[in-house]
Amino acid sequence: MSIPSIIVERLSKTFGQHAVLRDIDFEIHPGEMVALIGPSGSGKSTLLRHLIGLTRSDRHGGRVRLQGREVQVGGRLARATRPERCRTGYIFQQFNLVGRLSVLTNVLVGRLGSMPRGRALLGRFSEEERAMARRALARVGIEALADQRANTLSGGQMQRVAIARVLMQDANVILADEPIASLDPRSAQEVMQILARINEEDGRTVVITLHQVEVARRFCRRAIALKDGRLYFDGPIEALTDARLTALYENAGLDEL
Ligand code: ADP
Ligand code: MG
């Protein structure tokens, strides 16, 4: 059996008095594409941030393992995870590109984590890396935009650049936090199709927080749902019945359904 991509054990996080994650347990295996859903404020982003050690759990707040390596245990971050963290791509709702740099350079930034430190600081990229970046752009369908400044692109195009940057990291695991929440419906659909293709063709694990359950149903087989920081559901998405969904989103704003 292959090593799980992600193992989360009894993960708990409190901000002040507010228990944001409570005893979360799950495993995600290589090649899965999992939707992380739940009302706004249920802890989805906080959970995703814990997976790569951007946030530390409570002192006795459980553990996270990523691709067979400890990321954190009991509120302590493991030092040894850096390469694994580099091989885990993170995609943000707001793209996080450097607007004044070219699209190609933004994609090359994905390479920095795997370069020796001196070369990374100089930001010197080889011809091979540039060719690799152009291939990544071709894969997300925007090779023609390589030399434009990133801040001239549409939201959908910017998110494609962010995905190309993750491809440059050679990431086995891709974590995406509301990657389509700022996009118009058509761009949202295109970005989901690209992520689904990368998952299918490369076997990369994808975990994606989503606002719209309909989108999750269309693209993901498995859903993990949080409610008030607790694991409310984990299973095949078709087992999320209307009754369960109604209960998941009860007390939440109507616009979230
Ligand atoms: P979601 O992504 O599901 O909307 P979040 O993970 O962003 O939820 O937030 C879950 C809860 O944790 C919210 O109540 C939010 O206000 C709180 N929270 C998140 N980050 C912090 C922080 N750094 N300090 C205090 N509270 C936080
Ligand atoms: Mg969020």
TrEMBL record:
The keyword Transferase does not apply. Its main location: membrane. Residues 6-253 form the ABC transporter domain. It is a peripheral membrane protein. It holds the Pfam family ABC_tran. PROSITE patterns: ABC_TRANSPORTER_1, ABC_TRANSPORTER_2. Keywords: ATP-binding, Cell membrane, Membrane, Nucleotide-binding, Translocase, Transport. SMART domains: AAA. It is found in: Cell inner membrane. GO terms for molecular function: ATP binding. PANTHER family: AMINO ACID IMPORT ATP-BINDING PROTEIN, PHOSPHONATES IMPORT ATP-BINDING PROTEIN PHNC. This is Phosphonate ABC transporter ATP-binding protein. The lineage of its organism: Bacteria, Pseudomonadati, Pseudomonadota, Gammaproteobacteria, Oceanospirillales.
